Hints:
By secondary structure, the chain is of the alpha/beta class. It is 35% helix and 22% strand. It has helices spanning 24-33, 50-57, 73-79, 85-90, 110-120, 137-148, 161-174, 229-236, 244-259; strands at 9-15, 38-44, 63-68, 82-83, 95-99, 103-107, 129-133, 153-157, 179-181, 189-194, 218-221, 240-243. The chain has a 6-stranded mixed sheet, sandwiched between helices. It has a 6-stranded parallel sheet with strand order 9-8-7-10-11-12, sandwiched between helices. Strand 5 and strand 6 (103-107) form a beta hairpin. Helix 5 packs across helix 6 (137-148).
Amino acid sequence: MQLPTGASRFVFIFAHPAGHVGAPRHYTPYFHDNGLDWHMVPLDIAPEHLAETIRTLAKSPSVAGFNLTMPHKPAAFELCDAVGPAARFEGVVNTIRIEPGGRLVGESFDGGGFLNAAREADVFDPERRCVVIGAGGAGRAICHALAAAGLKKLRILNETSGPVEALAAKLRGQFDGLEICLDDKFDDAGLVVNATSLGLHATDAVPVHPARLPDDCAVFDIIAARRTEFMEACAGRGLKVVDGVAMIRHQLPLQTAFWRAEA
């Protein structure tokens, strides 16, 4: 393992709490495999300290950029001096680049990572209904990516109605041919996506009981920290399951190019 030195650069991933964050085991080897002396470091940062932490660390030439996960994506969006097109639509960023003078540029790559992973696993069919559970930062990014990729029918579920209704209205305003439902049904689903944090802990409820899913349905659970009970139950039913590690793996080249100002 290559240890950091004074010449190394760092990508900080901010979370709260951060005990579940396992991203460095994917990011740091990827950086080294691509000739970069970069290291990812997780930090548990309470929301009230996010702005001051980012602004302070951005002053160091040792910092290559920032990665944001729950619950920081919406707040990070507000801190940026400029944002990319996906972030502008979704209202969240999960990646921040530091430009000369400390200018912060943000973008959201959750949707791109998800879509590329879904395509590689052959679970994305634009003609089949996709059900996305969760309208938070990741859920918004995934719904946007699906709509931009030509999905015809989308169902969005969320614990509270406000966020999901706002997301549906925004999607309808940009994607005329997209049929959006908000009812709690799964009978016509070709792909079900868990875009919530349910599954980070063994004591969490499952986002939906697997018995409610069609026999030919695929499942994409964005949790990467562990193999969740939901994943295991769906696989036990014979459903095809994709996990959050695949999403991370497909975000890596997108984010790294962004941090290097190549995209």
